[in-house]
Amino acid sequence: MATVKPAAGQYFTASVPVLIVGAGACGLTAALACRDAGVEVVLLERDSLATGSTSLSSGMIPACRTAQQAHAGVEDCVALMMADINKKCANQAPAELVEAICAQSGPTIGWLTEEHGIALQLVNDFLYPGHSVARMHAPASRAGADLQAALLQASERSGATLMTDAWVTTLFVAEEGTVKGVRIARPDGTGEAIGCGALILACNGFGGNPAMVAQYIPAMAGAEYFGHRGNQGEAVQWGHALGAATRCMGAYQGHGSVATPHQILVTWALMMEGGIQVNAHGERFSNEHDGYSEQAVRVLDQPGGIAWCVYDGRRHQLGGQFEDYRSACERGAVLQAADTERLAAQMAVPHAALAASIAMTQGERRCPFGRSFTAPALAAPYHAIKVTGALLHTQGGLAVSTKGQVLTDTGKPLPNLYAGGGAAGGLSGEHVWGYLSGNGLLSAVVLGRIAGQAAAYKQCSESQLHTVRMMQRG
Ligand SMILES: Cc1cc2nc3c(=O)[nH]c(=O)nc-3n(C[C@H](O)[C@H](O)[C@H](O)COP(=O)(O)OP(=O)(O)OC[C@H]3O[C@@H](n4cnc5c(N)ncnc54)[C@H](O)[C@@H]3O)c2cc1C
After folding, report:
1. Coil, helix or strand for 408?
2. Which atom of ligand 1 is nearest to the CA of 169?
3. Is the pTM of this model over 0.70?
């Protein structure tokens, strides 16, 4: 249970200028920013290996005005990126945060690639729903595990200290709201208290906490959670105890395409490039191009809570670019058939309905759900994957300023508490349909860097703190 206790009289075994809770994309970028400023920083990570939801992701980070876009001849700008985010969430995200994050997205990608050696390529062969131009930047493998590995290596090179098996349970706070330190619990039952000049919460959201999901996102209460289970909503619990405000608690990233029972994320590129989803009756039920997040709820609403992704050999080739998709093929999730009749038999859906659904991709038929079929129609051989809807990560969290400072209900920043990534309220408004692809890692890396810079600056300007070992442990 996350708790907040008075700092008065608390003994700390060590004290560092900046402590960071969580070593996913947000914590690691915040650590890099601190080290760039010459400030000592310690990352506290509850797991033995730092993986987080970042490792489960596809590693796609949206950003505008990057060198990668310029090289590919893609014209983009802060205003266009903001417009895409605001359109998707119907202007429900805090305008100043959207602007600050979009403005810093390009510089952050440049900083990660050029100064910290993290190779990120522009994904230029398809567009994710809602993005006007190609602006996703990802490792060549399009695997979040590779992004996380590269960030961990960069963090180690920078001289940041990573403590694993260090579960932060308690914040020690002085009367005026200054965080003086934290308690960590070790798997063997031991623990210690570590002091800090500033604390950055990078411990993501509450997707791994069923009670909080039921409270804030009842529509997903019984759904599969496909993110990192260690993300228990502690940032929000500590924040509430400190009088911090929260934002957008009902928002989340869903996904309408998780292979079942194989539990593998199936890339939405299949849908964006011409694939369709049908239900157990072989019928389409939505405009797949609205977005994969809201599709989670639509799929769960179908008979049996499942749907089928239906596509063809051409899109199968595209899927092969994704490690997850290759893994789905290896594990037998992907059906293949020479014609619609055999495909329907394998899927155990009515053939006439499936054939009619596939015929809709020919373009001349009007889609009852408003999708415009402009890509080449599906053609034999066909493929299908049985999928369900899932919760990927929560987007609601602590209200933060454009510097990543955690804000109280009155809009005043707490003295030395920062948050980013899934720990902070995101850019997706209040609902599942407000999530624009990439909002998760965008907030993680850009807000992580901003929060790291702000926390480091405060430490440098105040007293040039260095690590002060007050007593050797034990
Ligand atoms: C399957 C999947 C695919 C996705 N694909 C994309 C994508 O392509 N693009 C995109 O933008 N987003 C994507 N997302 C969302 C994205 O992964 C997250 O938004 C992002 O990783 C959040 O980064 P983070 O650093 O905030 O959290 P995390 O990466 O989850 O890191 C948080 C860390 O904090 C640790 N922690 C938690 N509590 C404590 C504690 N009390 N003490 C110590 N440590 C603690 C956790 O163990 C974890 O390591 C995807 C998510 C999933 C699940």
Report:
1. strand
2. 41
3. yes
CATH number, domain containing residue 418: 3.50.50.60
- As a whole number of angstroms, the distance between CA 302 and CA 205 comes to 28
Give per-residue pLDDT as tens, 15-42. 999 999 999 999 999 999 999 999 999 9
Q: Which domain holds residue 322?
A: 252-391
Question: CA 48 → CA 52, 183, 290, distances in Å?
Answer: 11, 17, 39
Cα 92 to ligand 1 centroid, rounded to whole Å = 23
Last residue of a domain, one of 337, 363, 391: 391
Q: 443, 225 in Cβ contact below 8 A?
A: no
Which residues have any ligand 1 atom within 6 Å of their CB? 21-27, 44-47, 50, 52-54, 56-60, 167-168, 202-204, 226-228, 230-232, 234, 253, 265, 392-393, 421-422, 438, 440-442, 444
474 inside domain: no
Same-domain status, 382 and 402: no
- H-run or E-run covering 294: helix 292-300
Give the model's pLDDT for residue 1.
Answer: 77
The tokens for 15 are 């004290």
